[in-house]
Structure to design on (398 residues):
């Protein structure tokens, strides 16, 4: 969450005063339709025909995979650097995640994707990590030539774009998260997006297994199946509508700060700016640097921190590294053995041989990557102070 203020407080008040918090309801009976309005506003903003508000990014990924008909017998390729939810969405629908390397951009390595495709592979989930677009051109071309479905995990790249088109709208479906840590935030929230009407209806059913029992849900042409409950609510949507108004300003501030930071930053020979697939579409939440060795990276992080620069190496943020995805590494994909994709007969031919050291390229890159986190609250003086401190710290590490 970057910014939250009185507008969000007023939005919560407005819902509370209506005493209408459920996603469905009749405006004639005083219902505010905040969820529906948020869906329309997000659709307009990212230019996609269908948006489904959900409870989380994870829920959105599960809805996406269910919408695409992914299940037992299918492999889905995910990168080794992402939040565990990307992989767990796959096991949640009964399929098997195949985990592949990232490259120095800290996003899925298209070569690794291509190499990993097998006879069981049905889909790929490229993840736009830390606001940075993946190599969508190559990933989409590979997916097309192998007839793979594409779900873009845009949970960390809300508002980002690739070649002028919004992230999340390039693949067959996209998933966004609006949890506390994301660019926009409202309680626990997310959104599923697609341009395909049938996928939208299937996602809708997955997100509310009882949807056909509500008079507000009309015009569905897809046969109902047993879904779950990932419904959004009026509080979350009302907050998100206010958050969305802030998004252009948040991104402008982050991007301007990053542009200035990168142009002013002095780097020693052993550290460089990491490659990026579309700097204009990047959200600007951080600047990614690549060090020549893990030793240089460690020293750099220490020196940066000592100088008060908010720097991390993704190797330390354990949540996002495949080797720490315990349920996946231990092949415990569900609460019940008969529902566990790693034990299902249908998945016998799917590859699930995981080990902590199976992606040395990913581990090496993460141990050489430095992220300097940016803030929407930077003014010129603060940025100049940080960039000078960072340049000095990095010069001393080389
Ligand atoms: C946050 C995140 C998710 C999950 O989102 P939730 O809203 O926490 O369920 C999925 N993928 C990535 C890359 C994320 O960062």
């Amino acid at each position: 969450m970057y910014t939250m203020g009185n507008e969000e407080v007023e939005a919560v008040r407005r819902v509370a005063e209506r005493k209408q918090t459920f996603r469905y309801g009749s405006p004639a009976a005083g219902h505010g339709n905040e969820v529906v309005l948020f869906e329309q506003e997000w659709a307009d903003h990212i230019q996609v025909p269908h948006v489904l508000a959900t409870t989380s990014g994870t829920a959105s990924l599960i809805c996406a995979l269910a919408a695409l008909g992914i299940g037992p017998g299918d492999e889905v390729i995910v990168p080794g650097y992402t939040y565990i939810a990307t992989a767990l969405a796959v096991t949640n629908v009964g399929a098997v995640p195949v985990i592949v390397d990232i490259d120095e951009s800290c996003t899925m390595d298209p070569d690794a994707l291509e190499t990993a495709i097998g006879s069981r592979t049905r889909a790929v989930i490229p993840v736009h990590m830390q606001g940075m677009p993946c190599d969508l051109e190559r990933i989409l071309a590979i997916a097309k030539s192998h007839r793979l479905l594409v779900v873009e995990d845009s949970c960390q790249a809300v508002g980002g774009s690739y070649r002028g088109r919004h992230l999340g709208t390039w693949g067959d479906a996209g998933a966004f998260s609006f949890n506390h840590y994301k660019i926009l935030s409202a309680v626990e929230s997310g959104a599923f997006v697609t341009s395909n009407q049938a996928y939208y209806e299937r996602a809708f059913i997955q997100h509310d297994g009882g949807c056909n029992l509500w008079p507000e849900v009309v015009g569905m042409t897809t046969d109902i199946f047993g879904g779950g409950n990932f419904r959004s609510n009026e509080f979350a949507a009302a907050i998100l509508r206010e958050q969305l108004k802030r998004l252009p300003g948040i991104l402008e501030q982050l991007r301007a700060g990053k542009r200035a930071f990168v142009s002013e930053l002095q780097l020693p020979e052993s550290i460089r700016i990491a490659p990026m697939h579309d700097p204009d579409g990047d959200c600007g939440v951080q600047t990614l640097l690549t060090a020549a060795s893990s030793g240089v990276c460690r020293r750099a992080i220490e020196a940066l921190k000592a100088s008060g620069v908010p720097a991390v190496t993704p190797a330390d943020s354990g949540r996002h590294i495949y080797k720490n995805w315990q349920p996946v590494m231990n092949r415990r994909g569900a609460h019940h053995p008969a529902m566990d994709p790693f034990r299902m007969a249908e998945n016998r031919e799917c590859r699930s041989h995981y080990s902590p050291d199976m992606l040395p390229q990913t581990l090496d890159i993460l141990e050489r990557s430095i992220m300097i986190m940016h803030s929407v609250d930077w003014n010129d003086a603060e940025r100049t102070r940080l960039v000078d401190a960072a340049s000095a710290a990095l010069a001393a590490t080389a």
In short: The mean pLDDT is 97.
